[in-house]
Amino acid sequence: MMAAELSRRQWLALAAGAGSALSLPARWAQSAQRPVQRLITVGGAVTEVVYALGAQSLLVATDTTSLYPEAANRTPKVGYLRQLSAEGLLSLRPDAIVGAAEAGPAIVLEQVRAAGVRVELIAADHSFAEVLRKVQTVGRITGREGQAQTLVTQLKAQWAQVQSTVAQAQRKPKALFILSHSGAPLVAGRGTAAHALLSLAGAQNVVQQFEGYRPLTAEAMAAAAPDVLVNSTQGIEALGGVDAFWRRPELALTPAFARKALVMMEASQLLGFGPRLPEAVSQLHSQMLKVTA
């Protein structure tokens, strides 16, 4: 109760525009030095790393994007990583919260920090380096630095092999990534995880004219002329399955339609940029070449 009251007083002072930076509780400064005993992860890839390092016994909760490995589904959930609640997080008495860069809202995380909880968000740039940052950060916070270094070494070896395979490919398929987990389908432009993944897997993203995810008209899709379409298994299920997906009229205007050239993979592996990234890139690369042969 005292921690919750302290959090509210401090946050109100900050919101009122106090002239100086908010003084951190002494216990927050000390928490960075203490071993973590109660950990919350927000972001599926971060949770994957916890399990990969054998630190899952520290988990008191994860967010709803933490679906892998299967054991992560059985952890208490704090909600979607972009819609966290300070009350919900603090009720679990965590020592630390580690998450993806998009976790929030920011005001909630500031409240949690002010209550003395260590909060670390890992910068995202949709690269292999991002994967290594996640491994190293989780290793440091959980006291598994040795295990983290071993995993980093393994991942670097896997990544070198994947990069070599992609570089030797004779073709760069023209690909379109469709996001269809909910609502109207969107396509991935520049600056997205999907765009980065297509590039890493040796494909050319046919959507270059905008950043982010947007709807694409039938005319624009025909003009883009993708050889292959990429989606997640969850996205295909949301559209009613593979047969229903191909019945969408706008797809009939693409070269991919003639071959029924579709590659789908589980969403957290496909877009998570976690420790399964080398496997995801290798699988996506080989499947795109196969369906466009």
Question: How would you describe this protein?
Answer:
The protein has 293 residues and is of the alpha/beta class. It is built from 14 helices and 10 strands. It has helices spanning 2-15, 26-31, 44-52, 86-90, 106-114, 128-142, 145-167, 193-200, 218-224, 233-238, 242-246, 255-259, 267-271, 277-291; strands at 39-42, 59-62, 96-100, 118-122, 174-179, 186-188, 204-205, 213-214, 228-232, 262-265. The strands form 2 sheets. Strands 5, 6, 7, 8, 9 and 10 form a 6-stranded mixed sheet that branches. It has a 4-stranded parallel sheet with strand order 2-1-3-4, sandwiched between helices. Strand 3 (96-100), helix 5 (106-114) and strand 4 form a beta-alpha-beta unit. The protein is globular. The N and C termini lie far apart (64 Å). Mean pLDDT is 90; it is low at 1-30.
Low-confidence stretches: 1-30
Number of helices: 14
Share of β-strand residues? 5-15%
Number of strands: 10
Proportion of helical residues:
40-55%
Distance between the termini: 64 Å
What shape does the CA trace take?
globular
Descriptive keywords:
293 residues; alpha/beta; six-stranded mixed β-sheet; four-stranded parallel β-sheet; 14 helices; globular
TL;DR of this structure?
The chain is of the alpha/beta class. It has 14 helices and ten strands.
What topology emerges from the helices and strands here?
Elements: H1 2-15, H2 26-31, E1 39-42, H3 44-52, E2 59-62, H4 86-90, E3 96-100, H5 106-114, E4 118-122, H6 128-142, H7 145-167, E5 174-179, E6 186-188, H8 193-200, E7 204-205, E8 213-214, H9 218-224, E9 228-232, H10 233-238, H11 242-246, H12 255-259, E10 262-265, H13 267-271, H14 277-291
Parallel strand pairs: 1-2, 1-3, 3-4, 5-7, 5-9, 9-10
Antiparallel strand pairs: 5-6, 6-8
